[in-house]
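Item description
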Amino acid sequence: MKKFLMSLFITLLSVTVASASASLGSVELTKGNVKVKSEGSFKKSKVAKGLEVKKGDLITTSKNSNAVIKLLDGSTLVLDASSTLHFVSANMAEQETGKVYYKITSRDAKNALKVKTPFAIIGIKGTTFIVDSGKKSSVKLQEGVIGIQSIKEEFELYRKAVQAEYNKYLSEQEAAYQKYLNEQNKGAALLTKEFDLQAGNTISFDGNKVDEKAWTKEDDAEFERFEKLMGSIK
């Protein structure tokens, strides 16, 4: 009997520890209709403030809804309306739809976070950025550096400096620019499977074509909107 009780205690303790270790953070704030589907479940439940976010959870926001999630390491994620975020593990999230603001604390290479989207895999060690997985897919990086990796074929990467150079030559004389390209053995696009995005830049995706652009006032306004959401949702 004693052996049975001891075995039962150890089993329950193991389950408790495993359950605790699966915790990734908690929902700090919500607005509107926010739901969660747990790993292995087919049913979605309504999310309330304080909900513990665990490995395998799929968080969904409906129209005019938002959610703010605080991870155990202090990172903050803000889901915009009509967005989904699947917490595959402590170091991997999948964003299939919508827009999400990420404020990720500094991590070492071993614990770097990866965000998988329909258009790329984003590697993060610590930074602030916004990913839009809507019709106009884009990434806006406010600070730090993130790695962008192709899921399928190589990107046609149009760096802002190279594209500006291309437009300048094209406006002056297209024939002369073509000669310049032939002599330099390069084009306006860089074919690559992965690249780094530096702070103060945005990139937009159209299939495998990637356009890099400089920061604008509209980008500042979007980050300010998300930062206000973190403190104003009731």
